[in-house]
Amino acid sequence: MAGVYVSYPFCHQKCSFCNFASDVGSVGASSQYELALLEEVKSHSWDWPPETVYFGGGTPSLMSSAFLREIMDSLPRESSCEATLECAPGTITPELARSWHACRINRISLGVQSFVTAELRQTGRRHTAETVERDIQILQDAGIPNINIDLIAGLPGQTTNSWRQSLSWIERLRPPHVSVYIFEVDEDSRLGKEVLLGGARYGAPSLPSDDLTAELYENAFQFLAALGIHRYEISNFAKPGWESRHNLKYWKGEPYVGFGLDAHSFDGQRRWANSDVLLQYFDAKKRTTEISASDAAEEHFFVGLRLSAGIEPTLQEWVRFKEPINKWLGAGMLERSGSRLRLSDRGILVSNEVLQEFVNV
Q1: What is the CATH number that goes with domain 3-250?
Q2: Rounded Cα distance, 266 and 289, in Å
Q3: Higher-confidence residue: 274 or 23?
């Protein structure tokens, strides 16, 4: 079965490191966007009922409950559908949480990033560790126990001690799912531009070294494993049975359809994407900006190797990718077990470099 991704690109504030197709929008812009988004969803021809729905952004928890219900009611969902809503800590109230549960939202992803106030203020985030604790209690009381917490390793000013402080909050809160992303500076973000200029804003001078960032990620891997929260994909960790069913579709090459600004779709053979320019998205005739054929073998490696379980290449793939496979096996970045191939623990730390060699081969 396939999945659905819904993009809501508006936020209360723009993070200093963000370069996503999201922004702080006016009431007029968000209202016009909601009309266009609902029209796009309702005009879609469904060949299958989705078994997962994922609202990303932006901050989709800023949507009104009435609009969220309209979108959910327009989707021909499976009865056991996993429905995820991304939330910014501090935007959750008991009334909202109960309304989400009534709309059949059953999974929440909290963009925590850090539990250290000084690190959060460098990025422009306003919440505190106590805010997150309160939000989780509200969600659990509303009947939504399936909660993910996002953390970022390598934020400006981050140290081994401050990272340990963030991890200690994971031990305290015991969420069933944690995402740990290795921080990468985007040159088009405010922080990225400051780094290029040699400036001092947004914590640019205090970015951790690559070695320290890798160490922080490794510390998280070991710490979470000790809590029974195991890595199943490069950036994702879960207790058994709490893995993100929606995100697994991306890594397993299963089809999905995206609605909204800069939303991407895949039908198993072709990929297409909506415009990342708001005015173009509003025009249905200009909305879809990219259509391309998919190279199944490349994607099997480029996406599938992100999974801790790795992949089982076909005979043709072993032949086609013989050179990069042997190169990375020899370097200890890939491991082979029978017919399966996976990234090693060392390979995960340089995964972008490894995976890129399986494109255009």
Answers
A1: 3.80.30.20
A2: 14
A3: 274
